[in-house]
Amino acid sequence: MATPSAAPASGPADPAGTTGRDPRRWLILAVIASAQLMVVLDLTVMNLALPSAQRALGFTTADRQWVVTAYALSFGSLLLFCGRLADLIGRKATFLTGLVGFAAASAAGGAATGFPMLVTARACQGVFGALLAPSALSLLATTFKDPKERAKAFGVYGMVAAAGGGLGLLLGGALTSSLSWRWCMYVNLLFAAIAITGGALLVPRQRRTPGGRLDVPGVLAVSGGMFCLVYGFSNAASHSWGTPSAWGFLVAGGALLALFAAWQSRAAQPLLPPRIVLDRNRAGAYLTVLISGAGTFGVFLFLVYYMQVTLGYSAVRSGVAMLPMVALSGTTATLGNTRLLPRFGPRPMVVAGMLLNTAGMVWLTGIGAHSAYASALLGPLMVTGAGMGLIFGMAAATGTFGVAPQDAGVASASINTGQQLGGSIGTALLNTIAASATTGYLTDHVHGRPTPHLLQLAAIHGYTTVFWWCAGIFATGAVLCGALLRPGPLLRPAAAPVPRQATEPTKTPAPN
């Protein structure tokens, strides 16, 4: 039996896509999907549990932000480092380590007796999540080499990535209402147990990359830069863009990332080899997840605010209301990767997905204080779900396509990094826009003391303003990403016959 590291992932070196098939590959896909679902769920499942956790542990509203920020800081700043680590020491080792560590941190968070313990557990979740996420995606990229099977596998992965956030809202609401906020952490143990067992038994042992060395200056520059950017955007969201803790860290983060980019062209063994991001399709995939991550934040956060605060939905009902979006995103991710991507390539999928999201956001601007779910929310949720599925299904497949096995981990980490950075930008930008729009509405309409009805209208004005901005973000993404991505299917270069001697040198090394 050939291991996943025996040949590049459906690239020119394996034109037929028929070598190195692991007979247990579909079971491995189930293991990877379980692990990825755990990571994606954790991004939203705690959001609905935070008020209950705050009451139980007695921390302040200002402190509540750190339960989210601690995870984002460690996760975002370590992704590229952990992706390269997976390439150097073996993806199975980093995959299982990430699972065990994430489970342990979740158990500690669920058992937290105070705010410091909870925040520490969330930071540790971010560390092990950064180790787990790129390992899972790179395992997928190196396990499936046949073009048709690869399309199906990435369709499943895209379905999990697109639908996981909505499922997290549903699961978080159900667990918080019926059990306790602590179960929003404990539930990770179930997913981890399944993935650890399957990973230990099914994933083949993978060799280290021979002669590979870690780019320490690159690690320090990119990790420091990402930390500063995420921290700066978090402070901008909770305070203002003019505070030194916001703009100062943003400037420092930008400078460190510029230094990182300059160093990568000179380093002997760069952390992020320029050949990965200089490919137009891969660069387009990374830009797609960054822009989509910024815009998608408006769907999840502000729509949940609207449903719970304005319409009076419970946490469980809000999660159930998101199910049509979850269903459509999963369906379009699978169909897009199996039917559209092999035939048309990523460009039409990205443009269509971004434009569908734009239409969904514009549709949501018609919400009111007493809107009915069927007439005001169901349609835009389904349209947005279809768009998200097309985008996330394409991004994972395109962002790792044609990458040599020894670079699969850091290429996978680049996708996660773009999504994390996009989410941080969206959090800061859209929170600021919503607050400014709400304040401006009150200033223009208040006469004396504001009434509850006026406050409600001001909040709705803030939500609709955010949805207009999200529509603009997605429309811009359709133009920029559509221009960057190459036309035509990804599989066209791999279909050309390649002489046997041209493929043999790629099998001689022991890539990871």
TrEMBL record:
InterPro entries named among the record's database cross-references: MFS, MFS_dom, MFS_trans_sf
Major localisation: membrane
Organism of origin: Actinomadura nitritigenes
Keyword terms: Cell membrane, Membrane, Transmembrane, Transmembrane helix, Transport
Taxonomy, superkingdom: Bacteria
Domain Major facilitator superfamily (MFS) profile residues, every copy: 28-489
Name this protein carries in UniProt: MFS transporter
Lipid bilayer topology: Multi-pass membrane protein
Subcellular location, record wording: Cell membrane
CDD domains, per database record: MFS_MMR_MDR_like
Transmembrane segments: 26-46, 66-86, 93-115, 127-144, 156-179, 185-204, 216-234, 246-263, 284-307, 319-337, 349-369, 381-404, 425-443, 463-485
